[in-house]
């Protein structure tokens, strides 16, 4: 995917600013997770926080670097980071809010799929990209198979934030697939990803780990 220097500058700045914010966000997650009396809050907060920091750091470096070898490495890590963030975002909801057999089973499925996807990205770089995008969407909406369990496990406000974040990510995929056919489409994808991350972060901090 070839983009102009200006486009790449916008891409790197957008996720660079967000990467810095995720570091602060990670600290908040750890503090809240450590002080909560709920089970698995610190564990899930660390996993979720690290997935946020990883994705935005990898993406910033991929779009910001000019060395082709380094850029190729971080391109792979950038895509691996998407799998990490999807599974990472699920983790607090599954282990803290839902819990039980259902929570742990979906948690296991999410991270198994994520690890398979990461292996594919590392060893089959540049191949099966459309399949990977489909897997992102399936992972993101997997919880609908246990919709009633989710509804019974989190407040309505949390559900609204969760759905809004999911929709933001999903709409963003459209701009990702457009690619270089429309200028700054990848930057728009970044904005939708940032919005989705923010909505899910608010949901997790306000309604899950506290």
Throw out a few tags for this protein.
single chain; 210 residues; mainly alpha; Rhopdopsin 7-helix transmembrane proteins; 8 helices
Task: Please tell me about this protein's structure.
The chain has 210 residues and is mainly α. It has a single domain (5-208), classed as Up-down Bundle (Rhopdopsin 7-helix transmembrane proteins), CATH 1.20.1070. It contains 8 helices and no strands. The chain has helices at residues 5-35, 41-64, 68-98, 100-123, 129-140, 147-153, 156-178, 185-208. α1 packs antiparallel against α2 and α3 (68-98) runs parallel beside α8 (185-208). The longest helix has 31 residues, at 5-35. The termini are far apart. The mean pLDDT is 96.
Task: Annotate the secondary structure layout.
Elements: H1 5-35, H2 41-64, H3 68-98, H4 100-123, H5 129-140, H6 147-153, H7 156-178, H8 185-208
Helix pairs in contact: 1-2, 1-8, 2-3, 3-4, 3-8, 7-8
Q: Give the quaternary arrangement of the chains.
A: single chain
Briefly note the structural class of the backbone. mainly alpha
CATH fold annotation: Rhopdopsin 7-helix transmembrane proteins
- Label the CATH architecture: Up-down Bundle
Helix fraction bin: over 70%
Shape, per Cα inertia axes: globular
Compact description:
With 210 residues, the chain is mainly α.
């Amino acid at each position: 995917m070839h983009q102009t220097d200006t486009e790449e500058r916008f891409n790197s700045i957008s996720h660079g600013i967000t990467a810095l914010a995720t570091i602060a966000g990670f600290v908040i997650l750890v503090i809240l997770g450590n002080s909560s009396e709920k089970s698995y809050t610190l564990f899930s907060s660390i996993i979720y926080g690290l997935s946020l920091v990883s994705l935005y750091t990898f993406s910033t470096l991929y779009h910001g670097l000019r060395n082709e070898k380094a850029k190729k490495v971080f391109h792979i890590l950038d895509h691996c980071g998407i799998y990490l963030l999807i599974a990472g975002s699920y983790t607090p909801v599954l282990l803290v809010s839902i819990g039980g057999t259902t929570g742990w089973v979906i948690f296991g499925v999410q991270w198994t799929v994520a690890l398979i996807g990461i292996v594919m990205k590392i060893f089959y770089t540049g191949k099966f990209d459309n399949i990977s995008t489909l897997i992102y969407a399936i992972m993101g909406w997997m919880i609908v198979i246990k919709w009633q369990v989710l509804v019974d496990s989190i407040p309505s406000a949390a559900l609204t934030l969760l759905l809004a974040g999911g929709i933001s990510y999903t709409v963003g995929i459209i701009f990702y697939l457009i690619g270089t056919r429309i200028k700054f489409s990848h930057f728009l994808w970044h904005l939708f990803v940032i919005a989705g991350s923010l909505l899910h972060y608010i949901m997790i901090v306000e309604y899950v780990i506290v």
